[in-house]
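pls read this protein:
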Amino acid sequence: MTEPTREMKRNYWVLIASMVSLQVTSSTIYMVMPVFFSNYGISMSDNGYLIAVGTFAGVVSAFLAGKYSDTHGRKPILLGGAVVYAIVFSSPPSARTTRPSSSYASSRASPTT
């Protein structure tokens, strides 16, 4: 077995840092999502469905990206995925959300006793 080169070591640590960053942001999003959705009147079971749909989309895209990376190389897929991830999670929240429904807003405005 050959000794890893300096570039191989650098690439290894860049990949590790990227994966830690990805896992931290994903975990944070999945912890906050039910609270965020409940503020918009979405039930807990619907929260589960939305999270499951997102997870399923991730699984499907992982298979597609894996197949594509086999034919075109890993670097374009990793870089493209990182760029898409950065764009989605750094876009303003107002671009991804809508206002709460009027029934939700009115129920929050007047507390019941």
